[in-house]
Amino acid sequence: QAYADRPLPIDCGQTIAAPSVVATMTAALDLCDRHGVLEIGTGSGYHSAVLGRLARRVTTIERFRTLVRSAERRWIALGIRNISAMVADGRLGWSRQAPFDRILLTAAAPAPPARLIKQLTDSGILVAPIGPENGPQRLTLFQRIGQNVDTRDLGPAHFLPLIAGVAQN
């Protein structure tokens, strides 16, 4: 299954995105080694690890404590030390550490996530799947330029929905 270009199941009923989707989202972020990144949806920690190799600092938010713990073990084993993970409601972002140069949302939001867009630096980029859980979703790039937000469609997507709150189990 390691060579299959499709989503794979992980713990807590979640999935890891297909490698081509991870590549598309990462490329769209246009990262450099000076960027601070906020990732919403840690999952297995795979995408966080990719981001950690390209950016100065990655903060990742996950609603499942189990996933955060296993991802942290993976990053330690890989020698990646510039990732911080927290268990929280990702819909809220992390306003205390904002603004971020880049934000990556790895769950489908039903509409553009205004709260996250506000946490971008001027010229910051957010990449997110937008659309209903069972309907058509589009991978979308949002770039904040002053008070304006430019958008660009990156193609069709299929992600699990962005869910409110922190998982209790």
What features would you describe in this structure?
The protein has 169 residues and is α/β, with parallel strands linked by helices. It is built from four helices and nine strands, in the order ββαβαβαββαβββ. The chain has helices spanning 19-29, 46-54, 65-78, 114-117; strands at residues 8-9, 15-16, 36-40, 57-62, 83-87, 100-105, 120-130, 137-145, 148-157. The strands form two sheets. It has a seven-stranded mixed β-sheet with strand order 5-4-3-6-7-8-9, with helices on one face. Strands 1-2 form a two-stranded antiparallel sheet. The longest helix is centred in the middle third of the chain and has 14 residues, at 65-78. The protein starts with 7 loop residues before the first strand and ends in a 12-residue tail after the last strand.
Provide a short characterization of the protein structure.
This protein has 169 residues and is an alpha/beta fold.
